[in-house]
Write a structure and sequence with these properties.
Helix content is about 5%, strand content about 55%. It has 1 helix and 14 strands, in the order H-E-E-E-E-E-E-E-E-E-E-E-E-E-E. About 10% of the residues have low confidence.
């Protein structure tokens, strides 16, 4: 079986070589690399995703507002139905858009399945399908489908999750176009029992059929930390920096979640 470090090295090379471009801007409402595990049956999880872009794109392009100084707040409600199946529901808002004010930006629904663990395979695997309804001003397309495979591995103190997303516009000017490839990954280290810190990487690398110059792509690298204070809480904080001229240059993010357990469900 390949060592963790060999898997990590190959995974990073694959993500680095998968570069392409797309007209739409990076989605900055729910900035998260998904883990393998689904919410336990009978548990409902509430998460608040708070993101602020102090330095980003300006003006309006193709009817989409620039992200500069935008403040985003997303409520995610996820319920576990079985050991291997959950459904998430998102309400996205922009409490502050410069020159515009507060806006309701859309909603998403997301079923996710986790697959049985196989010792012969180096990753735990789950699969997410997320359908988005987006208001004008925040995406050139009104509806889209995201298909997100999730590959996760833990070895000792080291943690790795890879999300090679595919995004398919279903209603709007790009409907019918080739899927956009949006690779994300997270590498973390358990410094203590309660603190895991590392890097998170997010990109919009274009359609699977078309590769553009690196300067036209969106690549953002975060320094991030997870605080494991309780099995009921999820706490993630990060600071991101855009790596290309079209990326948002600075982003602050926080995820605060709590699991409500029903019917005697225990951590």
């Amino acid at each position: 079986m390949p060592s963790f470090f060999r898997v990590l090295r190959v995974s990073c090379v694959v993500c680095a070589l998968s570069v392409a471009s797309r007209a739409a801007a990076q989605d900055l409402f729910e900035i998260q690399v998904y883990p393998y595990e689904t919410v336990a049956p009978g548990v409902t999880m509430f998460e608040f995703h708070t993101n602020f872009t102090p330095s980003g794109s300006k003006g309006v392009e193709d009817g989409v507002y620039g992200n500069n100084r935008q403040f985003h707040e997303t409520l995610e409600i996820t319920h576990g139905w079985t050991k291997n199946f959950e459904t998430g529901f998102y309400i996205e808002t922009a409490p502050y858009v410069p020159g515009i004010g507060a806006k309701f930006t859309g909603w998403h629904v997301r079923p996710r399945f986790s697959f049985p663990e196989f010792k012969q395979f180096p990753f735990h695997v789950s699969l997410s399908f997320e359908y988005a309804f987006t208001q004008p001003g925040f995406d050139v397309n009104r509806q889209s489908l995201e298909i997100r495979p999730i590959f996760e591995r833990e070895q000792g103190r080291l943690y790795l999750s890879i999300n090679p997303d595919l995004s398919v516009p279903t209603k709007g000017p790009e409907a019918g176009s080739a899927p956009a490839f949006e690779p994300n990954f997270k590498v973390g280290w358990n410094f203590t029992e309660h603190v895991n810190a590392g890097i998170e990487y997010y990109a919009e690398t274009g359609t699977v059929k078309r590769f553009d110059p690196l300067g036209d792509e969106h690549h953002i690298l975060f320094g991030a930390a997870d605080l494991n204070v309780s099995p009921d809480w999820e706490l993630n904080f990060g600071v991101g920096k855009g790596l290309t001229g079209t990326s948002e240059q600075w982003i602050l993010k926080a995820i605060i979640g709590y699991r409500f357990r029903h019917g005697g469900e225990k951590p």
